[in-house]
């Protein structure tokens, strides 16, 4: 068994849900050497989140963002308001979706379903670049 860890910085993305599987695969050429294992993806931020969802129809990600806005709207009477009206809803959305994912690996490939992709959900209107820690663990081929 072997371990590998890498950190990547995503470009600043607009508010909404964005496919990022390609960024992750590009950052992990070591994935090709794994016979069986796990990839853990951890987002080092509290106002964005990660999810695995459909990667075929971009409308799904738009609708997911709308659902999150319904669950954590900006117009609730939040106590935490010092960083702007989209900050506390961003924290709530991050808590609902989560900041980490684990994906199984087989024969050098992520075992995502046919229509699945890893997505970053950006909950701030003017977000900075986001950092991900990628931890790969598995048996080499």
Give an overview in words.
This protein has 141 residues and is an alpha+beta fold. It has a single domain (2-140), classed as Sandwich (Jelly Rolls), CATH 2.60.120. The protein has 3 helices and 8 strands; from the N terminus they run ββαββααββββ. It has helices at residues 21-27, 58-71, 87-97; strands spanning 2-10, 16-19, 34-43, 48-54, 100-106, 109-110, 116-122, 130-140. A 5-stranded antiparallel β-sheet has the order 1-8-3-5-6, covered by helices on one side. A hairpin with a 2-residue loop joins β5 and β6 (109-110). The mean pLDDT is 96.
Task: Provide a concise account of the structure shown.
With 141 residues, the chain is an alpha+beta fold. Helix content is 23%, strand content 40%. The longest helix has 14 residues, at 58-71.
How many beta strands in the DSSP annotation? 8
The helix/strand series, from N terminus to C terminus, equals EEHEEHHEEEE
CATH fold-level assignment: Jelly Rolls
- Major beta sheet, strand line-up: 1-8-3-5-6
Amount of helix: 10-25%
Q: First CA to last CA: what distance?
A: 10 Å
| The CATH class | Mainly Beta
- Summarize the biggest pleated sheet: 5 strands, antiparallel
Shape: elongated
- Summed up, the helix count is 3
Helical/strand content category: alpha+beta
Overall pLDDT score: 96
CATH homologous superfamily assignment: YjbQ-like
- Our count of domains comes out at 1
Examine the secondary-structure arrangement and name the CATH architecture: Sandwich
**Rg over CA atoms:** 16 Å
Unreliable stretches (pLDDT < 50, length at least 5) are none
Strand content: 35-45%
């Amino acid at each position: 068994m072997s371990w590998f860890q890498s950190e990547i910085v995503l470009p600043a993305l607009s508010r909404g849900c964005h496919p990022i599987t390609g960024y992750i695969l590009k950052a992990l050429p070591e994935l090709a050497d794994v016979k069986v294992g796990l990839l853990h993806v951890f987002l080092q931020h509290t106002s964005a989140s990660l999810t695995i969802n459909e990667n075929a129809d971009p409308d799904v990600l738009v609708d997911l963002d709308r659902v999150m806005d319904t669950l954590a709207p900006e117009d609730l009477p939040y106590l935490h308001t010092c960083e702007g009206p989209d900050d506390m809803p961003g924290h709530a959305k991050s808590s609902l979706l989560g900041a980490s994912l684990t994906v199984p690996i087989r024969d050098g490939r992520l075992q995502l379903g046919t229509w699945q992709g890893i997505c970053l959900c950006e909950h701030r209107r003017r977000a900075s670049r986001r950092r991900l820690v990628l931890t790969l663990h598995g048996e080499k081929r």
